[in-house]
Amino acid sequence: MTDDQTYAERANTWLQSVDSEFGRSARLGLCVSEDLALGRRYLAARFAAGYAGIHWPVEFGGQGLGYIEKLAFEIEEAKFGMPSHYFGISLGMPIPILMKYGADKEFTKERVLKALKGEEIWCQLFSEPAGGSDLAGLRLRAEQDGNGWKLNGQKLWTSYAQHSDYGVIVARTDPTVPKHKGLTYFWVDMKAPGVEVRPIKLAGGDSHVNEVFFDDVKLTDAQRMSPVGGGFGVAMATLMIERYSATDSAGFGPHIDLFVSLARETRINGRPAIEDGRIRSAIARNYAMRNGLEAITARAMLMLQAGMEPGPEGSLNKLVSVRSRQKLSELAIDLQGVNGLHFDEHAPVKENWQTSWISAPTGRIAGGADEMLLNTIAERILGLPQDHRPDKGVPFNQIPA
Amino acid sequence: MTDDQTYAERANTWLQSVDSEFGRSARLGLCVSEDLALGRRYLAARFAAGYAGIHWPVEFGGQGLGYIEKLAFEIEEAKFGMPSHYFGISLGMPIPILMKYGADKEFTKERVLKALKGEEIWCQLFSEPAGGSDLAGLRLRAEQDGNGWKLNGQKLWTSYAQHSDYGVIVARTDPTVPKHKGLTYFWVDMKAPGVEVRPIKLAGGDSHVNEVFFDDVKLTDAQRMSPVGGGFGVAMATLMIERYSATDSAGFGPHIDLFVSLARETRINGRPAIEDGRIRSAIARNYAMRNGLEAITARAMLMLQAGMEPGPEGSLNKLVSVRSRQKLSELAIDLQGVNGLHFDEHAPVKENWQTSWISAPTGRIAGGADEMLLNTIAERILGLPQDHRPDKGVPFNQIPA
Amino acid sequence: MSLLYDEGQLAIGNESRRILEARVEPAQMLPLLEKQGEYHAGFWEMAMEQGWTALALPEAHGGLDLGLVELGLIALQAGRSLSGAPFLTSSFGAAKAILDLGSDALKAEWLPRLASGESIGAIAFAEDQHPLPPVPEATFADGKLSGAKPAVSGGLHADLAIVLASMAGTPVLVAADLAGAQRQGFQTFDNSRCTANLVFNDTPGELLASGQQALDAALHILAQQAVVTAHEQTGGAEVLMERARDYANTRRAFGQPIGGFQSVKHRIAELYGLVELARAGALHAAAQDGQPDFIKAAAAARIQATEAYDTAARDCVQIHGGIGVTWEAGLHLHMRRARSLAVEQGNMLFWEDILVDELAGETA
Amino acid sequence: MSLLYDEGQLAIGNESRRILEARVEPAQMLPLLEKQGEYHAGFWEMAMEQGWTALALPEAHGGLDLGLVELGLIALQAGRSLSGAPFLTSSFGAAKAILDLGSDALKAEWLPRLASGESIGAIAFAEDQHPLPPVPEATFADGKLSGAKPAVSGGLHADLAIVLASMAGTPVLVAADLAGAQRQGFQTFDNSRCTANLVFNDTPGELLASGQQALDAALHILAQQAVVTAHEQTGGAEVLMERARDYANTRRAFGQPIGGFQSVKHRIAELYGLVELARAGALHAAAQDGQPDFIKAAAAARIQATEAYDTAARDCVQIHGGIGVTWEAGLHLHMRRARSLAVEQGNMLFWEDILVDELAGETA
User: Fold this and answer.
1) Do D349 and D237 form a contact (C-beta atoms < 8 A)?
2) ipTM above 0.90, yes or no
3) d(Cα B215, Cα D322) in Å, to the nearest integer?
4) pTM exceeds 0.90, yes or no
5) What is the C-alpha separation between A210 and A203, in angstroms, rounded?
6) Residues of chain D contacting residue A385, judged by C-beta atoms under 8 Å apart
7) What is the pLDDT of residues C16-31, one digit of tens each?
8) What is the CA radius of gyration of chain C?
């Protein structure tokens, strides 16, 4: 048995031991605030057990282990449905970026520790009403204000902002230069005066994303995390991290086995659905595709283990898996016949075809819309021409809105 | 029974009477030149029987009837597999354009009559190596030469050029103005010195399209069919005629009934393929789609009858039907199992899945590639923005090749 | 019937569209999602006052003597504005059943009230995954119904249900006054459909047909409802295609309207194609009502329209990006409606099988 | 086996690619389409001289003791340059059958000759639409084969065939020297596959397995061939994706490279995805050889690779426009090859069913 298999087994044993306290069953019927509170207690326990910041330096309270161990733990953790998603973005992008670009080491250390223990949550303030896919097109202004800065404007689609203590933010510090060149990267105190968070209700009824308004919010220059005008690079670095966060060949929806079980329990024209060619084809095609994605991920892990850089094909996962999850969920609803009309908006997306279906479009848009992912593959991997961009090189304040 | 039904019945009766002489069975095993000769005799007979130029003015040898009668006859004619396709383009576009734009009425009348009787064939010289989809990007030059013109350059994808006596051609008469504005429309004698026709062999093994080279080919100014620089408009008029030429919900491939029969004769895992959900779905989806196309065509015919202009949805036919024919033909090959490997390159496309499959890509490209048709729908019907075109308004001789 | 609308029919289409757009705000549908069993009262009042409820019924019974083509026109417009109640289709189906199979007494009792809209009808054929169970579990004996019918669209408010049950092992079609039945509502992803399980406990009912005749009649009623629904689905797909087009023409990214990117532009063009194919198929089927190949035409229309609406919902949301998945934007109302209409009248799998059986029969 | 190629494996891939690109011109394949039963002799000589024929066989029998992963690497490169003969796969399958089931005498007789390539093997399992008929019509009795096997890939040149026949109603696997059989060639859309009907007339054969064991063995051999073929299909899809990319970067229309239009650009990006999924699936399956879930892995790889190659052929031609459908451009060679590889090892429908049976068994 390989080291990371033993590691996974140890992790699983620990997760078992706290399952009844934090796991799926413990979360049943909790409202968001109760669930979040439980999540904070789970993170504290996870930290104490030595499963926090697994691949982070020890000096920051991490375990100093490898990316493999981190992924292995996440795979085990997912099996128990632990309440850790509130902290996923916080520990996923902002904190690592803070560790890398944070000026004040002491301050950084303190934040990282509190984040690992679930005491503090960070959010990522990138998207704006004017530009979901077009990050560099953002409008939120940061103006010199004495030795510091003053933020005015609005962010959109900020996940968990309503629970966040801090956030990382990209703002326009110079509207007179081309759009990529006028941005600067800061961290911001979400409790500071002038910050207003308004949750946005999504199609499925949940509200984990927010509008965030900034009205003369004051920052010290110490909160700046990039050179003035050098914010786009740090923002890109932040997004690149996402590529390496845990993938899911099920597109973050139900596992194919659940569809197979459904096909065994349901009937088409009186015969078991599993015997119907249409259903068999859907199962086989989805399984084959997911099997390919999993082989890609497995190979990437082996390369990381061997100290190699995994290939760009890792970027296929979200594009392919979420899109197919959407159609498979629709088919699952059809398969249930009139019973498929039943709906429980709180049913877990990874176990319920209805919530999987209603939230799938968010998955196809958040973290890079399908079309943007295809462009990235075409341009960065295959070297095909960039799209026509009339705004290229044009001073931002001269681009027609 | 409506008038056009009686008309169709009369046509059918006549076609029956000449079936043994010209129909499917009579053509079996003929080489192209024999088949073409038979086709000329068929057109003579068709003319004598009063089924030529059905909706054309009597003064040009037509029957002076309506578009409905013309379509009705074509539908009947198709059932017998008559050898008329060599003359389809000739009578479809060039001759109508000649009737409309031909300067010399006597000359025109003579040409129209000979074309209707199958004694002469016209081709349409539009596409060039440099621009299949981009018609206005053509390079073939027509230079002033005394009172006339001199053609130099190359055309490509010219159907039946090797059998043609005349052709209509678009040439660049002024390279110093934006590309749409420098074109002029002529007719040309395909037997004139300097014209060289080289057949192109296609993927399926057949060679009905050609390269045509023009080396100092002389034209009189009487052969000009548009104002100098006004050729693009006439070219567009030519292409618009295609929209109203007979449509085929089978994408010019086999009828869905043939797929149903195949599914009844073949087995999947020992059970009749027609009972397999995958095959049932393919049949149902294709039938439903074709049923929609046919309803669109039927409604268009009623509108024409009522003197109304049919809606733009007529332009869907080729896009939707040929694309789906391609995949259905592939499935039909799969369905035949190892027997599906058999191939007869001369088998009629409307009755054989292998030749239908191998020639389907040509159908998706000729007469407007799928992508161009989607652009046309998006721009002309839905008012969506035109693609970015760096060459817009740029003098032709300054566009980088 | 012709594939060309006459002036009267065009007027019906235009007038219903005008009044629906004037009186029904899609936003008004949002709160209905969060309540169980509430429908858009304004929509239903309009349907009654405009005579849409009476449209396809004979004059003799208080109807307007028009047909599927006209009702389809209304349904298409209703689909554009997310028809606020499912009764237009279900009452029509129920009335048709009674008209074709009911006794004079039954006709006299129900048809005028269904035509006026004061009574609401429902169809209770399906059981679990089978839209037309050949031997239903719900039973009928001595003029009384027992057992349950799951997830009946409009069941929470229907006064009358046409029930497919079995009598001593043979299928029967029964008309039942729901005063004597129990309704169990539940949460659906499209609550304004007022879906409920109907539970019968020696509920009195009147036999309409039995054996093969019952199954044939049930399929015919389902097919007629499917054609009305195909129009409704076409209307929904059409309005989504228009919203996608309008958004793509105004929303800018990378310095141009996103409609300038072929991934967006071609997807909308494909939606146009799906909408026109669905429209043509639905009209063709409506015009075939009463013809021998009506079932075939209805199945084809149903398949094309279901694909059009589901695809339009998927793509229109995707084209809208982030805003498309917000509650307020309300595009999810169409996502939900596309799915509920796809399921209610028998899913794609069912209609594919019906159609192929018809086609295979021909080439036999 | 690992999902990471080791240095030796990488060397095999690079070397085979180098030599194939140096010695095989796709254009050389065009004339083969118009002759019946001719294959690319240069390709097959190369396969012998490079030891590709011996790759996956044990040293004891003149092989190189390597496995499916290495053979897959060769097949992928061969697929890129339209492998000029089908024997690499068919001889491997035949050899495997004899290795697993044959007598020592049979092994001694055939394996060295198959390893060296001087003899060619073929698999004759399918009958009409069934890749693995449970009760074949070809029969075996008293050590003699009778009846026919249709459209056997490589059949025109094979010296040995592994035949799935039936003996008194039970399936049997038989090794037959084709010296005693009749070959009927015919025109296919991919003539260099040298496909032929094999007709047996009391042709002597040796029994390898019978009953369920014969069917299991046949499925296992077919699955191993399917994995080799999945690599070949992946290579074909990969080279088509590259050709589409290169053409889109150079061909200009409307004043820019057509790769600047998202309809072209995104389609090529989708092809990249299909190629990488096929590659990963094929390698995973090869690495699973000998493991309990090999059949499942092989079926998944086969399905993904078949979809990749068919789609790449369709889209690459479309992206090339007019030039793409000319005989000279030769893209139709890939269209044809994609289809013949899709059919030869059991079509998509067959492998979907195999995979689902495996999966359904698990969740049972």
Assistant:
1) no
2) yes
3) 24
4) yes
5) 14
6) 249, 256-257, 259-260, 265
7) 999 999 999 989 999 9
8) 20
